[in-house]
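Hi U.,

Before I forget, here's the chain from the pilot set. I'm dumping it here mostly so it's searchable later in email.
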Amino acid sequence: MSTTARERAPAGAAGAELSREKRTDMYRMLVELRYCEKRAYDLFLQNLIKGTSHLSLGQEAVAAGFASAMRPDDWTFCTYRGHAHTQARGASMTGVLGELMGRECGLLKGKGGSMHLTDVAKGAMGSYAIVGAHLPIAVGAALSAQYRGTQQVAVCFFGDGTTNIGAFHEALNMAKIWSLPVVFVCENNLYMEYTPIAAVTAVEHPAADRASAYGMERIIVDGNDMDEVYQVAQRTIGMARAGKGPSLVEAKTYRHSGHSRADPAKYRPAGELEQWLERDPLKIYRARLLGAGVPAATLDGIEADAMRKVEEATAAAKASPPPPLSLIEKDVFADGGAAWRN
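Structure:
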């Protein structure tokens, strides 16, 4: 069965059933994710963020759309490109930027860095630097929710390259066999690091075209259209919460920058980036809200407020000291004894 969000809603009608308040709240989240991610880029260029970082500039509508449909006690599992996913669940800007800068105010006291953002209190259950490693972990979380009868849902985000990893297939198979409350979301940005996914994958849609192998519906959504993402998120999360098992969603999107800050992305065809910039999630959603009668002054105010929050978070992170040496052995060791295992 082939299903896409565009087949269910005519162009321009996406989100028509959402209230103005809900949609302005979603726009606020989208803008805050974008501005905070752009600030992370600026801080890296200032040498205030060490090592590398993987930005999700251009992909924020996936994070915002799904987070807007989740309950506070649901779980998010994401990749090293997880700044937006973590923040979308409610993690503070100061905590995110502080962690990227290795400061004590960071979500992990500065010990995790860009690729390991985590805020368990907000349901952000970690960013995972090993490709595909978190899919089986999300399955385990979903199994625990099913066992305890909590109706919690695990939502697991990953890139298109993960679809060629064994853990992807094992996780989908196990989730389906046990009818677990988990939604797998492939953020297909066309490239697995520097290689076009189409060059190394036998099917056109690396996630959706494999769904039938595990008895799942084929779902493709425009990952740059937040209304469409939200609609799919509501439906698939609702199914999982109702005990109807897992879903696999392929969100077609595009990263505006390279794979990481060390990547100039010169492998992309001429004109490709410019075409995708015309479909920038912020541009799409702002135009849609204006068309729905939301005053430009309201949207300008949201944008100004988001920039104020970013400036305040940046100042707080810069003022925070590096973590003390006393934290170096905290949260890194288990003795492996029977008490720990049981």
